[in-house]
Task: inverse folding
């Protein structure tokens, strides 16, 4: 009986020691990545595979990037022993040039590696700028099409398209042309400074019309690369004469 008691105590002690020694362990097979040569202005992405190589639950508590140009997010933040997940890292190359080296820090409950670092590199190629157009306006519409859906004949429907000048010179809206007399467009501002915004109020009169139809609105501006931009309207008019 005494031997059995000793054996039980030994087993319990061993289990306690093993439990105390159990711990999560973060593991990333390839913790560096090279995007190579990429053009300035684009967003590139890469997935890192995170594995729990330990024998206790791994909890990812925080992700921190070394600069605001980088974003990272794991699919799962809790991993059982042997379980894996992916972490997508995005790098925005806007206004970056030359060789880049960025880090993403993964904070977890791994006692041996509570702050794990992954690294990526890239060579950002600057865009060749035409000096004659180095300073130019750029018209950006928040949408290029709109579907009014099903509308009863005779209704006047409307919506607003927001636009902005994301260029470096004054934007001028020269005119707005509609494809038919049933459509009207009113521009809130015709001269927009860099960073400024405006709206185009669009109205469509469905009187004496029927069925599905599409109409266009063309915006003419001094944007040298896109002097004409089109907005397409869709509507399904219920009732009325064809």
Result:
């Amino acid at each position: 009986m005494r031997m059995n008691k000793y054996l039980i105590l030994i087993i319990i002690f061993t289990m306690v020691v093993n439990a105390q020694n159990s711990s999560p362990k973060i593991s990333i097979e390839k913790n560096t990545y090279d995007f190579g040569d990429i053009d300035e202005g684009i967003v590139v992405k890469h997935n890192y595979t995170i594995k729990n190589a330990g024998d206790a639950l791994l909890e990812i508590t925080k992700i921190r990037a070394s600069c605001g140009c980088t974003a990272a997010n794991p699919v799962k933040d809790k991993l059982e022993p042997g379980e894996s997940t992916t972490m997508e890292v995005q790098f925005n190359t806007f206004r970056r040039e030359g060789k880049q080296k960025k880090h993403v820090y993964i904070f977890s409950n791994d006692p041996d590696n509570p702050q794990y670092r992954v690294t990526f590199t890239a060579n950002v190629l600057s865009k060749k700028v035409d000096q004659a157009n180095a300073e130019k306006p750029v018209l950006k519409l928040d949408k290029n099409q709109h579907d009014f859906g099903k509308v009863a004949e005779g209704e006047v429907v409307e919506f607003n398209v927001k636009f902005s000048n994301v260029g470096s010179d004054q934007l001028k809206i020269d005119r707005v042309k509609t494809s038919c007399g049933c459509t009207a467009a009113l521009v809130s501002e015709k001269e927009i400074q860099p960073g400024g915004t405006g709206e185009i109020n669009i109205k469509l009169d469905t009187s004496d019309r029927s069925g599905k139809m599409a109409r266009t609105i063309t915006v003419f501006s001094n944007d040298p690369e896109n002097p004409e931009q089109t907005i397409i309207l869709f509507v399904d008019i219920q009732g009325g004469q064809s």
Observations:
- The domain at 134-238 is CATH 2.60.40.10 (Immunoglobulin-like).
